[in-house]
Amino acid sequence: MLYGYARVSTRGQINGNSLEEQRQKLQEEGCEIIVEEQYTGTTTSRPEFDELLKKLQPGDRLVVTKMDRFARSASEGSTLIQELQGRGIGVHILNMGLLDSSSTGKLVTNVLLAFAQFERDMICERTQAGKEIARKKSGFREGRPSISKERKAAAVRLILKERHSYNDVAKETGLSRSTIIRAVREARLMD
C-alpha cells in the first residue's frame, strides 16, 4: 500500500511546502492514505508520523514530497530510511526518487541527506541573521505583536455576555482559541 506523509511547520507555508501542494503531489503519486500534520521540523514529537510508522507493513511504501518533510537531520533521515528498509518498507522521496538498499542507493541517499541537512542549516543561519538585523532597528520587539486590550475585551464580551462559541469568536476577532481562553480565564479571575 502507498502511504503519503505531509507536514508543515506553519499553516501559512508556501512555495511547494503547503499541505495542499504536498497532498496534491502525493495523490498524483497514487497514495491511498495521506497523513498530514503541523509540527515544526525541530519538534521531536510528531504523533501522526509516529502512528504512521507503526502501521507500515512489509511491502508498503512511504512517500513524502521532500526530505525535510520526512526527517529533521541527515542522521535521523539515514536511521529512519535504514529502519524502514530493514522492515521491508519502501521509501520514496518525490524530489529524490525511490530509495533502495543497494550500495549505490545508500551512497546516493547519504549524499542527498547531507544536502538536505545543509539546506536546513542555511535556512536557520539566514533566519538568525534576519533576526539580528531586525533587533538593530528602532522599535523592534521580540516575539509576537501584542494584542490590544480592546480586542481581548470584545472577545471576552462575546463569550461571557453574548454566549458565542470559542470557534465563532476566534473567526470573528481573528484571535486564536488559546488567546481567547486565556482572556476569558483572566476576566473571570478579575470578577
Write up what this structure looks like.
This protein has 191 residues and is of the alpha/beta class. It has helices spanning 19-28, 47-55, 67-70, 74-86, 103-135, 149-160, 166-173, 177-190; strands at 2-8, 33-38, 61-64, 90-93, 97-99. The chain contains 8 helices and 5 strands, in the order βαβαβααββαααα. The protein has a 5-stranded mixed sheet, sandwiched between helices. It is elongated and about 70 Å long.
Present the secondary structure layout:
Blueprint: E1 2-8, H1 19-28, E2 33-38, H2 47-55, E3 61-64, H3 67-70, H4 74-86, E4 90-93, E5 97-99, H5 103-135, H6 149-160, H7 166-173, H8 177-190
Parallel strand pairs: 1-2, 1-3, 3-4
Antiparallel strand pairs: 4-5
The overall pLDDT average reads: 86
The succession of helices and strands, N to C, reads EHEHEHHEEHHHH
- Enumerate the spans where pLDDT stays under 50 for 5 or more consecutive residues: none
Distance between the termini: 57 Å
Computed CA radius of gyration, to the nearest angstrom: 22 Å
Percent of residues in helices: 40-55%
* Count of separate DSSP helical elements: 8
Query: Which structural class do the helices and strands define?
Result: alpha/beta
Estimate the strand proportion: 5-15%
How do the strands line up in the largest sheet? 2-1-3-4-5
Major sheet characteristics: 5 strands, mixed
Globular, elongated, flat, extended or rod-shaped: what is the shape?
A: elongated
Short key terms for the protein model shown above:
191 residues; five-stranded mixed sheet; single chain; 5 strands; elongated; alpha/beta
Could you give a short description of this structure?
The chain is of the alpha/beta class and 191 residues long.
